[in-house]
Structure formats: structure tokens, C-alpha cells
Write a structure and sequence with these properties.
Helix content: 40-55%
Strand order of the largest sheet: 3-2-1-4-5
Order of helices and strands: HEEEHEEH
Length: 182
């Protein structure tokens, strides 16, 4: 018995392809951003071999931000210079992770970090032995990954799931039509 199969590529309509590609692109973009912005720095911190390096503190200030709803948040911003093997590097990173170093609602937290920095005489930073351009004022990681990271990553995962689910549904429908036309 000879089977003939019809070309059913027309069964995949432009709507299904559009949904598939949009969901896939949005999902990959969001998940990629979350991994690059939040998760990789924490992994770098855990794998880094940090060494105390003399540095000069160029500037340190507490920045105040007011949102549209009247909320106020504060952040410590720094700039420092350090020299390794005759090369000068500059940095602005306080530490790895998000929770402690990002915007907070208490000015006292930022002032406490500023006081801890000024207690260091002489001032030094912690540099990664493998990548001299990576330096932090405070070693280690700052707590857990920001909960917003998990939320945004979950949204990206949902988009990926919907994209793959859409193309799977189209493939199953094509297979059923092929089976029925035999």
C-alpha cells in the first residue's frame, strides 16, 4: 500500500508564526536580560578570587530619587581609581548583587555604607585577580537575588512556554490532518 502525503505547510498560518516568533523573541530577551543583569554578576562574585588593592576614592555621594508617587529612595554612588601592573583602572561598583547596593528607602542605609567606606584608611577595593577591571568596594554578595528578578524571569519563561506551545499545537494539528487524509 502506497501512502501519499499532502504538503500541509499552508496549515501554519501567519498568525501562528507571528505568535511563535514574538513569544520566542520576547521570552529570550527577558530571560537573557535577567541572566545577564542579575544572575551572572552573582555567579562572578562566587567564582572571583578577590584581592585587596590600594585605591583612591575620587567621589562618594548619596543620591536621592523621587518617583511620581511621592516616594523617595537613596543610593550611594562612588567612583574610585586603582592601579594594577602599571595600568590605571576606575570603578563605580559597590558590590555584587542587587539588594543592598540598589535604591533603598532609608537614607540611613546609604549613610552607613558611606561611613564604612570612610573608616578604611588607607582606602582599598577588592579586585578580581583574573579580570583586573572588575573591582568592588565590599566583597561577597549582597544577599539574595532581587525578588523582581524572579518575577521578570518568570514572565520571560511564560513567553517562552507560550511560544513553544503554539508551535507544538500547530505541529500536532498538522500530524492529525496528515493521518486523517491517508
Amino acid at each position: 500500500m502506497r501512502h501519499t502525503y499532502k504538503n500541509t505547510s499552508a496549515d501554519v498560518g501567519p498568525f501562528e508564526l507571528l505568535v511563535y516568533f514574538l513569544c520566542l523573541m520576547v521570552g529570550l530577551s527577558v530571560v537573557g536580560y535577567v541572566v545577564n543583569a542579575d544572575i551572572l554578576p552573582l555567579l562572578e562574585a562566587r567564582n572571583a578570587t578577590l584581592v585587596e588593592t590600594p585605591a583612591s576614592l575620587e567621589s562618594a555621594s548619596i543620591r536621592r530619587h523621587e518617583d511620581g508617587d511621592g516616594g523617595v529612595s537613596y543610593r550611594l554612588e562612588v567612583r574610585y581609581l586603582y592601579i594594577i601592573d602599571g595600568y590605571e583602572y576606575s570603578g563605580t561598583r559597590l558590590g555584587y548583587g542587587e539588594t543592598r547596593w540598589s535604591w533603598g528607602d532609608k537614607r540611613a542605609d546609604a549613610e552607613e555604607l558611606l561611613a564604612q567606606m570612610h573608616e578604611r584608611e588607607p582606602f582599598f577595593v577588592y579586585t578580581d585577580q583574573r579580570y583586573h577591571a572588575r573591582a568592588v568596594v565590599f566583597p561577597g554578595t549582597a544577599g539574595i537575588i532581587n525578588p523582581i528578578t524572579w518575577f521578570v524571569g518568570g514572565i520571560g519563561s511564560i513567553f517562552l512556554f507560550v511560544g513553544f506551545w503554539t508551535i507544538s499545537c500547530v505541529a500536532v494539528a498538522k500530524a492529525k490532518r496528515n493521518r486523517a487524509s491517508r
